[in-house]
Design goal:
Pfam families: SufE. The protein has about 140 residues and is mainly alpha-helical. It is built from six helices and three strands.
Length: about 140
C-alpha cells in the first residue's frame, strides 16, 4: 500500500470512534475537478454507489497511476471515499494500487460509523479502480 494511504488508514484507525465520521467528511473536498477534456462518457460508473459515481484510472508509461473521480457534492460520504483514494494514491504505481487491501474501509474503522451499503459502495470503487489498472497492465503486456 502506498505510504500516504497507509498514513490515512492509520489516522482513521487511531481516531476516537466519535471523530471518525467527521474525519471522513474532511476528505469530501479533496477530489480535484475533472480536466476540461474529460467527461463522464469516458469514465466507468460504479452502480453499487447510491449516487451517480464515475471513475477512471490510467496507468502511465512510467507505471504511475492517475485517477479521476466524479461524484456530486450532495454525496459527501461517497466523495470522501474518492478523496481518500485520490490523496492516498497520488503518485502511486500500479503495483502499489493493486496492493491496496480490499477491506481498506473496514481497516479504517468506517464500518462502525457508516451504513454497510455505503461501505459496499466504497469497496466497489476500489475494486473497479483496481480492475481498470489490471486490465491496462494486461493490455500493455500484450
Amino acid at each position: 500500500m502506498p505510504t500516504k494511504l497507509a498514513e490515512i488508514v492509520d489516522e482513521f484507525a487511531g481516531a476516537p470512534h466519535e471523530l471518525v465520521l467527521e474525519l471522513l467528511l474532511e476528505y469530501a473536498d479533496v477530489i480535484p475537478p475533472l480536466p476540461a477534456e474529460m467527461s463522464r462518457e469516458g469514465m466507468e460508473q460504479v452502480p453499487e454507489c447510491q449516487t451517480a459515481f464515475f471513475l477512471h484510472a490510467q496507468v502511465q508509461p512510467d507505471g504511475t497511476v492517475i485517477t479521476w473521480f466524479d461524484c456530486p457534492p450532495e454525496a459527501p460520504t461517497t466523495r470522501a471515499f474518492a478523496g481518500i483514494l485520490a490523496e492516498g494514491l497520488a503518485g502511486a504505481n500500479a503495483e502499489q494500487v493493486l496492493a491496496v487491501p480490499d477491506d481498506l474501509y473496514q481497516r479504517m474503522g468506517l464500518a462502525q460509523v457508516i451504513s454497510p451499503l455505503r461501505v459496499r459502495g466504497g469497496t466497489a470503487i476500489l475494486a473497479r479502480l483496481k480492475r481498470q489498472v489490471r486490465e491496462q497492465i494486461s493490455a500493455a503486456a500484450g
